[in-house]
Amino acid sequence: MQPAYRRVAERLQEMITEGELQPGDQLLPERKLAEALSASRTAVREALAALSGAGVVELTGQGAIVRHRDLAEISGAFVELMLQQRSDVLELLEAREIIESQAAALAAERRDVSDLQRLWLFGQEIEQAVAARADATDPDTNFHSTLVACAHNRTLSQVFAVLEGAMRHVYQPTRRMMLLDEGMADGFLGEHRAIIEALREQDASLARQLVRAHIHRAIEFAREGLEEQQDD
């Protein structure tokens, strides 16, 4: 059976392509949208995250807004997103858990003051975006890329660069859902701060442990989401 969020996303996509919703239009608040589409708020939230990942809508502090894009381009991006294998998200996160945890340990030993400053700045950008309920995927990806760069290992950075492209596409909808969930977002922000502090203290063991736990929590979130979709 088709997941509930996908049915909602397809209905919203249809409304956009048929002109019921125009570029620049602001969608109804989550609760009212759920009522209008006879769906749960969870399904609506996940659908908006998926549409945001496809570039169809923009999530702002005031709600979701239809983006100004060519309809053919929007349709193509949406179809591509919907065709992605759901297992890709879990496999990507597993690879990140292995690579980033070891990179964090090296980073704790090798980081310099400028590395810590860059991590802190990206952490601030994430917190500001989450507070405004805006898209935090780019600063979050930048945070993790910088964390790997702090290991000062070119091969590790090159390997992670391959994953970074997937992080900005395959993983975007899942990441947006997590960062829009207040409970999850607060936990992730706290974990980012703890990771920076472990690097500041040059505690390699703690840095490795924190990053592994941080990404493992994302794995569990993604796995639970996939199981819920299968049950719909």
Give an overview of the whole structure:
- The protein has 232 residues and is mainly α.
- The chain folds into 2 domains: 4-83, Winged helix-like DNA-binding domain superfamily/Winged helix DNA-binding domain (Arc Repressor Mutant, subunit A); 87-231, Four Helix Bundle (Hemerythrin (Met), subunit A).
- The protein is built from 11 helices and 2 strands, in the order αααββαααααααα.
- It has helices at residues 4-17, 30-36, 41-53, 71-83, 87-110, 113-131, 137-149, 154-167, 172-180, 182-200, 204-231, and strands spanning 57-60, 63-66.
- Strands 1-2 form a two-stranded antiparallel sheet.
- α5 (87-110) runs antiparallel to α8.
- The longest helix is centred in the C-terminal third of the chain and has 28 residues, at 204-231.
- It is elongated and about 55 Å long.
- The relative contact order is 0.13.
